[in-house]
Specification:
By secondary structure, this protein is an alpha/beta fold. It has 2 domains: about 150 residues, 3-Layer(aba) Sandwich (Oxidized Rhodanese, domain 1), CATH 3.40.250; about 120 residues, 3-Layer(aba) Sandwich (Oxidized Rhodanese, domain 1), CATH 3.40.250. It contains 10 helices and 11 strands. The strands form 3 sheets. Strands 1-5-4-2-3 form a 5-stranded parallel β-sheet. It has a 4-stranded parallel β-sheet with strand order 7-6-10-11. The longest helix has 12 residues. It is globular and about 50 Å long.
Length: about 280
């Protein structure tokens, strides 16, 4: 196993039971659901051996102010949690959620990448694809042998601060991509954040454009789509954002699947951007 971006259900089926395979269930429901809806779904049934990662409790630190709705978790706490899940740098990790990876498998994938973990992938199509492939589920909690805290720190060079975004506002567009749906980007509706709109100059690239029937489009199709938007720019010049730094990770996964490496994420994203009223807001297309 050497999966670093996506893995399909059939390949995972063939690897179940491997001693160095670690599974993480990252199901989360953002709107119109109880805060622990994902955990409740996990308790009802999950992949054998999978642990549960909560977007709010494990993959974010909600105590941080001014850094958006889902600030980065404390790196020490996250490294300790990985140890509790029995995850070491030598393991192949596969993360999944209910379907397309946006809530919040790609977020967990990215956080492990920030620690330098290479062999981590998202199950393409998530639990829905697993079920379609005939994969087993269980409600039994896994018997995990804890390990020491994961021995690494976040590589913050893969992140972009609000100040860096501000400093680049004068550049030609085509470097900042916003993964939110078009109506939210344009400011027509805003079901979550107190202010509608987008960062001036950002390009709207809804994460769903990378999907075909709940799974990622082929690498060649994604490369064609993304290259047309990048123009003469390198992918490493790109900054990805969304509402709170979660679906931006899904967009990054699309870049990586397409072989376009080096894009970075603005973790605070829109919800972090509007925490400072001095930052400009644009609306419309």
């Amino acid at each position: 196993m050497n999966w670093t971006a996506l893995v399909d259900a059939q390949a995972l089926l063939a690897a179940i039971g491997a001693p160095d395979l670690r599974l993480v269930d990252a199901r989360f429901v953002m709107l119109n659901a109880a805060p622990d809806a994902g955990r409740q779904a996990y308790a009802q049934g999950h992949l054998p051996g999978a642990v549960y990662a909560d977007l709010n409790l494990d993959l974010s630190d909600l105590s941080k102010i001014g850094e958006g709705r889902h600030p980065l978790p404390d790196e020490t706490a996250f490294a300790r949690r990985l140890g509790e899940w029995g995850i070491t740098p030598a393991d192949q990790v596969v993360v999944y959620d209910a379907g397309d990876g946006s809530m919040a498998a790609a977020r967990a994938w990215w956080l492990l990448k920030l620690l330098g973990h290479q062999r981590v992938a998202v199950l393409d199509g998530g639990l829905a694809a697993w079920r379609a492939a005939g994969g087993a589920e269980t409600d039994a909690l896994p018997d995990i042998a804890p390990t020491p805290a994961y021995p690494a720190r976040f590589d913050m060079r893969q992140c972009v601060s609000a100040d860096e975004v501000v400093a680049r506002l004068g550049e030609d567009s085509g470097w900042l991509f916003d993964a939110r749906a078009g109506e939210r980007f344009r400011g027509e509706v805003e079901p979550i954040d107190p202010i509608a709109g987008h960062v001036p100059g950002a390009v709207n690239l809804p994460f769903a454009q990378a999907l075909r029937d709940g799974r990622f489009a082929s690498a060649s199709e994604l490369r064609s789509l993304l290259s047309s938007l990048l123009g003469d720019r390198q992918s490493s010049d790109s900054v990805l954002m969304c509402g709170s730094g979660v679906t931006a990770c899904h967009l990054l996964l699309a870049f990586e699947h397409a072989g376009l490496h080096g894009a970075r994420i603005y973790p605070g994203s829109w919800s972090g951007w509007i925490s400072d009223p001095a930052r400009p807001v644009a609306r419309g297309a």
